[in-house]
Backbone:
């Protein structure tokens, strides 16, 4: 049977992309390694708002079309769950503006293959206090959690679309979040220079790993962070240092596995 | 101006090649970090850089097709690419024509119906020009599209051939090209040996056409071997890195 990445010619299944073959019983598909994001329902993605339209936002999630975030699939401010009102439609830019970064979940597909997102959980929403990194989507694997707090006091959100958000740690108690603040545009005030350096360092570690095309998860990021501590932050963009950090991190992971 | 001797008495060409010999080909993919797919290709001294972006959200709403992706090709020739420094305008008719050749060549090969409402941008940059720009552009585009993981039914391999003095020869360089040689560029799908592009701007005797075509076809097959090796090596390399 013909899966993704193949086509049929003369009753034979032929690959249409360069990649690795996946076989599930009789279904044969070819997965390209270096390509844009192809999503599944339930994926956690990081995206950037590109357009505010009628009752919806367009979000760039590095897929082949912009994803759509409906006004009805976000948590409206005001505490209690409520239906959207006309006033919400008129002040959509006060929730998300063009250029804002959001973390969301893929909720459904539209007929043409575009994704519909939702942010109806306090985990999701606008991103603040950090910096953005883009890596090839194939490097981020599906796992139990995509929200990680690293030991160095940095939070990382690994979007399955290869967009990664590295931010200062914000203690979260999901019961006590002020819903008014979910859409605020202000960074928290007490981000120390040390926090900033950690964010930059973790960001550079992720870049170093992506440069070597190594899978990115919280374990390897922590190891890469430890490996990077012997270098100055400003040297971390040098090719040979990036390579050294990535190698050291992979060996550490291998040792841990035994 | 006395015409240069293009074919030596021993049957060697001006750069020492035999008539059916390609120039040295160097190719790499994934040379740009920002692009979804990219390739750098050298045919001897002809050097081309191809970048593919997409499939991505189409920029012009009016052009969007609801059942397939649109291809957009832009070609740029660096001012320092030729012996004489010359800046070409973006609307140079020859460049636009060449870009549309590339576009037409790839439209039947890219499975665009898999990517409705999107756009695939192909940007080509000629860094050095030493004959055979069109073939280099097509070959580089093939590799960049494959690197971007875009579904295609086959490779597209292009090769030029021409009638140099008394013999058919392939992969003409700039001197051969510019000294009044009739030249044919063909683009071929190596799996089925179908031809998706034939381009000729000068006159060629019909008796010689078959020989020139045969030779160009053989050149395409050789091109395919080189490109396929680069692509496979790259895919294996990535798969190995990810297996760690």
Residues:
């Amino acid at each position: 049977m013909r899966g993704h990445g193949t086509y049929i010619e003369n009753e034979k299944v032929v690959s249409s992309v360069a990649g690795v073959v996946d076989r599930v019983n009789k279904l044969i598909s070819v997965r390209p390694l270096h390509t844009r994001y192809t999503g599944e329902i339930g994926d956690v993605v990081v995206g950037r708002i590109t357009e505010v339209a009628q009752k919806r936002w367009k979000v760039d999630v590095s897929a082949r079309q912009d994803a759509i975030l409906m006004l009805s699939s976000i948590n409206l401010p005001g505490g209690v769950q409520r239906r959207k009102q006309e006033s919400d439609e008129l002040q959509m830019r006060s929730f998300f503006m063009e250029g804002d970064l959001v973390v969301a979940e893929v909720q459904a597909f539209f007929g043409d293959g575009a994704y519909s997102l939702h942010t109806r959980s306090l985990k999701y929403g606008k991103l603040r206090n950090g910096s953005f990194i883009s890596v090839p989507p194939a490097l981020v694997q599906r796992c139990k959690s995509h929200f990680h707090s690293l030991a160095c006091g940095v939070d990382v959100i690994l979007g399955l679309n290869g967009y990664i958000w590295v931010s200062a740690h914000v203690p979260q108690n999901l019961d006590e979040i002020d819903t008014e603040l979910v859409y605020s545009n202000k960074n928290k005030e007490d981000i120390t220079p040390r926090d900033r350096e950690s964010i930059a360092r973790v960001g550079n570690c992720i870049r170093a790993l992506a440069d070597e095309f190594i899978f990115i998860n919280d374990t390897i990021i922590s190891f890469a962070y430890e490996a990077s501590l012997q270098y100055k932050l400003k040297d971390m963009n040098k090719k040979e240092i990036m390579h050294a950090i990535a190698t050291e991190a992979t060996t550490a992971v291998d040792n841990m596995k035994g | 101006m006395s015409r240069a001797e293009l074919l030596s008495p021993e049957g060697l060409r001006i750069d020492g090649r035999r008539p059916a010999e390609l120039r040295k080909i160097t190719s790499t993919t994934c040379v740009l970090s920002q692009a979804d797919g990219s390739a750098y290709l050298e045919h001897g001294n002809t050097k081309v850089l191809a970048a593919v972006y997409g499939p991505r959200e189409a920029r012009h709403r009016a052009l969007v097709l609801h059942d397939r992706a649109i291809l957009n090709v832009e070609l740029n020739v660096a001012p320092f690419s030729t012996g004489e420094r010359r800046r070409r305008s973006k609307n140079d008719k020859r460049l636009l024509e060449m870009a549309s050749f590339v576009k037409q060549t790839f439209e039947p090969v890219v499975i665009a119906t898999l990517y409705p409402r999107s756009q695939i941008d192909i940007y080509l940059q000629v860094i050095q020009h030493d004959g055979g720009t069109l073939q280099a552009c097509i070959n580089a585009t093939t590799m960049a599209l494959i690197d971007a993981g875009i579904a295609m039914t086959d490779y597209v391999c292009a090769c030029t051939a021409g009638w140099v003095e008394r013999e058919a020869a392939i992969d003409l360089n700039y001197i051969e090209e510019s000294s009044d040689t009739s030249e044919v560029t063909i683009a071929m799908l190596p799996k089925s040996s179908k031809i998706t592009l034939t381009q000729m701007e000068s006159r060629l005797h019909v008796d010689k056409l078959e020989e020139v075509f045969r030779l160009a076809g053989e050149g395409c097959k050789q091109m395919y071997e080189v490109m396929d090796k680069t692509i496979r090596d790259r895919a294996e390399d990535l798969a190995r890195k990810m297996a760690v």
User: Anything to note?
Assistant: The radius of gyration of chain A is 20 Å.
